UniProtKB/TrEMBL annotation:
<keyword id="KW-0378">Hydrolase</keyword>
<dbReference type="InterPro" id="IPR012337">
    <property type="entry name" value="RNaseH-like_sf"/>
</dbReference>
<protein>
    <submittedName>
        <fullName>3'-5' exonuclease</fullName>
    </submittedName>
</protein>
<dbReference type="InterPro" id="IPR036397">
    <property type="entry name" value="RNaseH_sf"/>
</dbReference>
<dbReference type="InterPro" id="IPR013520">
    <property type="entry name" value="Ribonucl_H"/>
</dbReference>
<dbReference type="GO" id="GO:0004527">
    <property type="term" value="F:exonuclease activity"/>
</dbReference>
<keyword id="KW-0269">Exonuclease</keyword>
<dbReference type="Pfam" id="PF00929">
    <property type="entry name" value="RNase_T"/>
</dbReference>
<dbReference type="InterPro" id="IPR006054">
    <property type="entry name" value="DnaQ"/>
</dbReference>
<keyword id="KW-0540">Nuclease</keyword>
<feature type="domain" description="Exonuclease">
    <location>
        <begin position="33"/>
        <end position="206"/>
    </location>
</feature>
Length: 216
């Protein structure tokens, strides 16, 4: 069956995305492309809350591809005024908003089969998977990494200093002296996460050769 066969259960944009995973990822670490992402949402319930915006940028060869970003705002089917002080997105926002399906379609085209990176990745990936489920589509197929988990690998093990169970993105900005400008916007947090990820990679490289296997 061709990937654009309209008799397929899934739409063309999903088939195009899924077909990319037939090709293996590059073997050389510096040839890998990482997509660093963040979502702003109405809350933290993956089933009942909704995505308000998605921000993402690409890293390759330890460089941020600043000319290739994703920054989309979604039409608000649900609204939670309690979350507005965090993300600042109002119900009648002047941002150009698109439907959930169009946002997911753009996201899939942007990320392709690249490796996803996020802080507390399980939440962001879970929110996107919930959106996919509402569209009767399968879950994301990408490998993903969590900067919160990776950061712990940089810490020196000591009986005197016990690592915390969870490190927030604010913790990482303080540890690595990263500016908090545009904090709590999806693209702003994606950029902060990307800087933290690069600094984590630099520290891990001091311990052993970088490889996707080691990071996972």
């Amino acid at each position: 069956m061709g990937i654009f066969n309209r008799s397929s259960k899934y739409p063309d944009y999903w088939q195009t995305y899924a077909a990319l995973f037939k090709k293996p990822l590059p073997k050389e670490f510096d040839e890998l492309t990482f997509v660093v992402l963040d979502t702003e949402t109405t809350g933290f319930d993956k089933m009942n809350d909704r995505i308000l915006s998605i921000g993402a940028l690409k890293l390759k060869g330890h460089n941020i591809q600043v000319n290739e970003i994703l920054d989309v705002y979604l039409q608000q089917e649900a609204f939670n005024k309690e979350s507005v002080p965090i993300h600042g997105i109002l119900r009648n926002s002047k941002q150009d908003c698109i439907s959930e399906e169009e946002a997911i379609q753009r996201f899939l085209k942007y990320v392709g089969n690249h490796i996803l990176v996020a802080h507390h990745a399980g939440f962001d990936i879970g929110m996107i998977n919930s959106a996919l489920k509402r569209l009767d589509l399968p879950k994301l197929k990408n490998i993903y990494l969590d900067t919160g988990v990776l950061f712990k690998k940089t810490l020196i093990k000591s009986y005197l200093v016990q690592p915390k169970e969870h490190y927030s993105l604010d913790d990482l900005t303080e540890k690595f002296s990263i500016s908090k400008k545009d904090r709590h916007t999806a693209l702003g947090d994606a950029y902060i996460t990307a800087i933290a990820f690069l600094k984590i990679l630099s520290k891990l490289k001091e311990k052993r050769e970088l490889s996707l296997k080691n990071l996972r």
